From TrEMBL:
Belongs to the class I-like SAM-binding methyltransferase superfamily. RsmB/NOP family. This is Transcription antitermination factor NusB. SUPFAM superfamilies: NusB-like (SSF48013), S-adenosyl-L-methionine-dependent methyltransferases (SSF53335). The keyword Methyltransferase applies. It comes from Glutamicibacter ectropisis. The lineage of its organism: Bacteria, Bacillati, Actinomycetota, Actinomycetes, Micrococcales. Residues 206-507 form the SAM-dependent MTase RsmB/NOP-type domain. InterPro entries: MeTrfase_RsmB-F_NOP2_cat (IPR049560), MeTrfase_RsmB-F_NOP2_dom (IPR001678), NusB-like_sf (IPR035926), NusB_RsmB_TIM44 (IPR006027), RCMT (IPR023267), SAM-dependent_MTases_sf (IPR029063). GO terms for molecular function: RNA binding; RNA methyltransferase activity. S-adenosyl-L-methionine binds at residues 312-318, 337, 364, 383.
Amino acid sequence: MSTQEPRGGYRENEPRRNAQGRTRNRGQAGPRKYSQAAPGQRKRQADPARLVAFKVLREVSGSDAYANLVLPKLIREYQLDRRDAGFATELAYGALRGQGFYDAILSTLVDRPLTELDPAILDALRLGAHQLLAMRVPKHAALDETVSLARAQIGAGPSGLINAVLRRVSAQEVEAWTKQLSDAASSESERLSIKHSHPDWIVRALRGALIAHGRDAAEIEALLQADNLAPLVNLVALPGLGELSGALELGAEPGTLVPDSATYKHGDVARVPGVKEGTVRVQDAGSQVMARTLANVQLPESGEDRYWLDLCAGPGGKAALLGAIAVERDARLTANEPTAHRARLVANSLDAVPHDYWMVTEEDGRTFGGEDYAGDYDRIMVDAPCSGLGALRRRPESRWRKAPRDIPELTALQGELLDAAFNAVRVGGVIGFVTCSPHQAETRLVVEDFLKRHEDAVLLDTAAAVSDVVYADAPAAGHALAEGSTVQLWPHIHGTDAMFMAILSKKA
């Protein structure tokens, strides 16, 4: 038997309580030593991963930044390893996605409107709530680390408020909070809005979109749930330039929707062969479908097929895929992006494609409606600016920045860009009208209004064109409209962003 003295300073068979019945100090032999620091100064260091997540939320709420742009820079700045980077990502994105739900809880625990709280305090509360209710973090660690973060970044005074509020958050599990808030909701859309952390108007818009595109309104809860799942990293190999064998060797899995694609979930995607060179790209499978469909659709009438236009090309993902296909077809791509910094992103995206086959322009897309461009192009992609309601899982902060009043201005611009493309396409050429939104005002209604304005326009069978580029067992996505059909992809059905497409043509 070991003769080593047991830890804690007492020996075997020695009583652990003194004559007064008090428990003896287990931490050491001899008198207990107390910290000389004031309670608010005992720990003022923030855990690096939590600090990165907090700074992301501060940039998003304080500077209208985008989390997907801020987070990678901060991960590099603080030199987080793979494990801590993953924790910071889940914490930041999860708090942003769940903001509506967490704010509904916090509003029952704070004695003033949340808008009157210091924004930094509110961000810290959201981070703490997400750890307590949605992550596998022990409650004591979530509380202690969030309070330490607050002490270091906000101050000792606010940290006391944060500690008190988060202790009340931790008093119930997420299921109990959900039931309490749902029971208090005044309508079904409000209940879903709180439970799934989407603004009420978006819940109603998405339900209407399901109906407009021929689906059951009862799918709304599955759609909202899918919006709150972290999307997989989707890869595409540029045709004739890249290959996915290196990615598959690193554990990527072949895509299930479209050929020459893969999903990757094994850490830093920059390690995948071809990514740094630009021949293998990160791109949502829905975007891959749209680009491949436009390039593949049979032109309704004869004529050359050499001049292609991506009218709204930034940041360049679809342009890169179209450019690579254009090389194989001996076609030439013009990638247009009116904003200078986004035009640079387009050029960077196309850099791996032989430069003789593409050019980048910086025109307002509506200028292509002028006589100088009439009938110049055989294929045109109009990936129009939109609300982005189809990409809420990728841009979690965007759901809190959009408002119903944004839609009319966007739909007017979409119609103008579509008119410009119709001027620029030749007779017998095709236009792919695409939005990353299922909102019926940005999809079906734009197409219907366009067809009313142009008697020489025709809607093609877009569903059939899409079925030609996806796997045979892919879920159906088409819906009849006028004499043709449109396509709407869904996160809960196809595992993609909610992307819409209509293939249009100009007849003689």
